[in-house]
Amino acid sequence: MSTEAHQGAPRSEKRKATTDVTELAPGVLRSELPINLPGLGHVNCYMLQDGDGVALVDPGLPGEDSWNALVDRLKRAHYRVSDVHTVIVTHSHFDHYGGAERLREEAGARIVGHSSLAHWRSKPELHDVSEFMAPDDIEQRIPPNDGPLGHWTPWGTWSQPPAEIIEHWQKLGVEDFETPAIDHALDDGNTITLARREWVTVHTPGHTADHVCLYDADAGLMITGDHVLPTITPHISGFAAPNGPLGHFFDSLQRMHEFTDVTLALPAHGDPFDDLYGRADSICAHHDGRLDEIRSLNNNGEPASVEEYMKHLFRERSWGDMAASETYAHLVHLRDAGELTTTWSDGLMHFH
């Protein structure tokens, strides 16, 4: 996650999870589950109440710590695990779907998500280097190691999470990053009844290709997942969509103007907020600023690698795979708009 879009503001997304369960609207409860990821201290697990029990939106990380917290929050809302009849997964990142399969096993809960969710993984797919590398470079490109989760990036580097990160993920049980199989598929414009109210599915690709929000027109509510967060901007990965993830994200953010009657946005991290489309515009402005920075850097016309651009766009403490991936997404956006071209040199993609 990036924080540049809201400098100086308190970042509620970063706050550690509390044990509170609060009612935001009739039948709509907010609980917080603990996570420890860059810029994030909790994930909101929304409880949607009805006569059959409760549906949960984004049931946190895999692993015992998150599961025990979830059981505790259910108990505080006067529910048991067996009362959970539905799990809604906003998108395919493991801090959102981690508890889903266990809820299916222990409660018989159905899993609901975008129709492409079962075919998506948070881990980037392994790339065939012949798809993107210059022919003369292919034979020279040998992976530095064959460790778990290593993969080629489209811009020619080898990406491998640090050993301590892999160990942490494996302890959580996410070593294969398999998303849950869905029982009920949602596509844009579909409706689903939860908490005695109708929610309309709003497909919002960008952060991931399978991201969905849920809109309740009668109450003016929008469950935004990671699409629109109150003070930070979601990571836009160069792997998030087959083509142009940043362009998809811009389009999805502009769609928030269709929902001017939303009075309360329910994000996956941080506190609920009231200015949905204003916040969406602020996030767009942040990324427009990044694009302008790239344009400025490119004024001399010299080819530069993704890493070189990354070091200009991000502070040194943020340098790494995520920053490079987001940089690549911005560079590709300008390339697709005809503002940049690419060449290969020394096994790396360069933009100019």
Description:
The protein is α+β, with helices and mostly antiparallel strands and 352 residues long. The protein has a domain at 4-120 and 174-278: Metallo-beta-lactamase, Chain A (4-Layer Sandwich). It has 9 helices and 17 strands. The strands form 4 sheets. The protein has a 7-stranded mixed beta sheet with strand order 1-2-3-4-5-6-9. α8 (306-313) crosses α9 (321-336). The longest helix has 22 residues, at 276-297. It is globular. It starts with 21 loop residues before the first strand and ends with a strand. Mean pLDDT is 88; it is low at 3-7 and 120-130.
Tally the beta strands: 17
The CA-CA distance between the termini, in Å, is: 27 Å
CATH superfamily of the domain at 4-120 and 174-278: Ribonuclease Z/Hydroxyacylglutathione hydrolase-like
How many helices? 9
Radius of gyration: 21 Å
Helix content: 25-40%
Strand content: 15-25%
- CATH topology description of the domain at 4-120 and 174-278: Metallo-beta-lactamase, Chain A
CATH classification class of the domain at 4-120 and 174-278:
Alpha Beta
What overall geometry do the principal axes of the alpha carbons give?
globular
CATH architecture field of the domain at 4-120 and 174-278: 4-Layer Sandwich
Strand order of the largest sheet: 1-2-3-4-5-6-9
> Could you say which structural class the secondary elements and strand pairing correspond to?
alpha+beta
Q: Secondary-structure element sequence?
A: EEEEHEHHEHEEHEEEEEHEHEHHEE
Low-confidence stretches are 3-7, 120-130
Query: Mean pLDDT across all residues, rounded?
Result: 88
**Major pleated sheet:** 7 strands, mixed
